[in-house]
Specification:
It is an enzyme of class 2 (transferase). This protein is an alpha/beta fold. It is about 45% helix and about 15% strand. The protein is globular and about 40 Å long.
Length: about 180
């Protein structure tokens, strides 16, 4: 099946490297890039900043905004790369309703490595204390999601290695120089 647009949703818990990989893929592919954090209402940001985990009722409107954005981009003929935790299969099902081909790139790795990364970053509203709640909520990609083209990626690999893996596995055209 030919799609007018493809959406790569770089997913995983906070600190897994979503923004780094999404930016690298966007540069390599020449596709639009967006951070799901930019779609959060202020109330969600305030909760997370205070160390309060989001609940499903907090996430559904946020996820709907993201799905709407992807559909708008597909209607304009744009493929995208988007960061989004997409921790649950039900969240991914909602996002997959966007027009175009929606594939998930799950960044996974050891909790210690993710925690170290979170400790070292500055200026982000998500505190490291919320990592355990994200890990508890995370539902890994299902066999069906993987069979449909979504990928599970090891965060111990370099961003450059991950970009090459994604482009090769999904047979994507690399429009831009690395």
């Amino acid at each position: 099946m030919q799609y007018a647009a493809t959406h790569l949703v770089v997913m995983g818990v906070a600190g897994s490297g979503k923004s780094t990989l999404a930016a690298a893929l966007s540069r390599q592919l020449g596709w639009l890039c967006a951070e799901a954090d930019e779609f959060h209402p202020q109330s969600n940001i305030q909760k997370m900043s205070q160390g309060i985990p989001l609940q499903d009722e907090d996430r559904w409107p946020w996820l709907q905004e993201i799905e709407n954005w992807m559909t708008t981009q597909a209607q304009a003929g744009n493929s995208t790369v988007l960061t989004c935790s997409a921790l649950k299969q039900s969240y991914r099902r909602l996002l997959a309703q966007a027009e175009g081909r929606v594939l998930f790139l799950h960044l996974h790795g050891e909790a210690d490595l993710i925690g170290q990364r979170m400790q070292g970053r500055e200026g982000h509203f998500m505190p490291p204390t919320l990592l355990p709640s994200q890990l508890a909520t995370l539902e890994p990609l299902s066999d069906e999601e993987i069979a449909a083209g979504s990928l599970r990626l090891d965060i111990s690999k370099s961003p450059e290695e991950l970009v090459k893996t994604v482009i090769a596995a999904l047979q994507l055209p690399a429009d831009q120089a690395p």
